[in-house]
Design a protein that fits this description.
It is a single chain. By secondary structure, the protein is an alpha+beta fold. The chain has 2 domains: 72 residues; 216 residues, Extracellular Endonuclease, subunit A (Extracellular Endonuclease, Chain A, 3-Layer(aba) Sandwich). 35% of the residues lie in helices and 18% in strands. The protein contains 10 helices and 11 strands. A 7-stranded antiparallel β-sheet has the order 1-2-3-6-9-10-11. Strands 4-5 form a two-stranded antiparallel ribbon. Strand 2 and strand 3 form a beta hairpin. The longest helix is centred in the N-terminal third of the chain and has 42 residues.
Length: 320
């Protein structure tokens, strides 16, 4: 906010309003000042003038302090706006966010997550997967690191060391080949969950690949994925006690075709095909306690979440 004094042409009520709020200098009538110094005379007049001067100086100091404070806040907010995505609680890919959880929502540039401090990982990760995000040449660097934006501090790579579990991506690195920045962002530890390698490199990777195919063919899909967290899970890591989930979910919406599909997979080796894990989104909401894609009109949401249409996603329909 600029600190240049307001011009005298501003409306009187505007000056009075800002003076009451502590923004303006104290009102001093020049005519009163002149006659006061002329007729009061002597030290009395001088003392009165000195009081006025002190009042003006104090007002100026208050103005400077308030202005610097507002400028500082504006700069801080500006940096946050530049560093964060333009997402908010109404972004269409996000699940409904209860008021009690809003302080734990972390908005990165390419995805958003809800961090669960108790389990030291994301409750869910949500993002808009567009075809353009996939068509890049960014190389995987494996730069796993704590997430600086988690207010309670995230897990660290050390928590997974010698645990027997992979640092499994929730939002996969392969979805963000558009740039080194996008790829790197997926290696925050808030986006990791302990996964057996046979699961991470097996059926879970197959599902990730299938979602990328859908984004390539459809242009845009909304993705929400995460672990099923509950009390009593085993943990890894001496410092942060990261819970080891037994299952993971993924829900995908095609906003253009109004088609939805969801999956729950066990954190273990599987020889089944991806379609065999498909469930209604209603069932996944019951299991996770989440409300997916709440921006949809109820009539459409209820219809999409209550059915599983495998053919819409896994088999191309022949044109007649």
């Amino acid at each position: 906010m600029a600190t240049t004094p307001r011009k005298k042409t501003y409306a009187k009520k505007t000056r009075e309003k800002r003076a009451k709020a502590g923004w303006g200098l104290p009102k001093i009538n020049l005519r009163t000042l002149f006659y006061g110094t002329t007729f009061a005379g002597g030290f009395g007049g001088f003392g009165w003038l000195t009081g006025c001067y002190n009042q003006v100086s104090e007002g100026a100091a208050n103005l400077k302090n308030k202005t610097e404070q507002v400028i500082g806040n504006a700069n801080k907010n500006g940096r946050q706006d530049n560093d964060k995505p333009s997402q908010d609680d109404n972004s269409p890919e996000l699940p409904a966010i209860p008021k009690k959880d809003r302080d734990n929502v972390v908005r990165h540039k390419y995805y958003t997550l809800l961090y669960n401090e108790k389990h030291e990982q994301a409750q869910w990760v949500a993002y808009k997967l567009e075809k353009k995000l996939l068509n890049g040449v960014a190389k995987r660097k494996d730069n796993f690191r704590p997430d600086p934006d988690v207010p309670t501090q995230s897990a660290t790579p050390a928590d997974y060391r010698d645990s027997g579990y992979d640092r499994g991506h929730i939002a996969p690195a392969g979805d963000f080949k558009i740039s080194a920045e996008a790829m790197s962002e997926t290696f925050f530890m808030s986006n990791m969950s302990p996964q057996l390698h046979v699961f991470n490199a097996g059926i879970w990777e197959q599902l990730e690949s299938k979602v990328r195919d859908w984004a390539q063919n459809r242009g845009t899909v909304y993705v929400v994925a995460g672990p099923l967290l509950q009390d009593g899970l085993p943990t890894i890591g001496k410092a942060n006690k990261v819970s080891v989930p037994k299952e993971y979910f993924k829900v995908v919406l095609d906003p253009e075709k109004k088609q939805m599909i969801g999956f729950i997979m066990q954190n273990r080796q599987s020889f089944k095909q991806v379609p065999t894990y498909a469930l209604t989104v209603d069932e996944i909401e019951k299991r996770t306690g989440l409300d997916f894609f709440p921006y949809l009109p109820d009539s459409i949401e209820d219809k999409l979440e209550s059915q599983v249409k495998i053919d819409d996603w896994f088999f191309d329909k022949k044109k007649k």
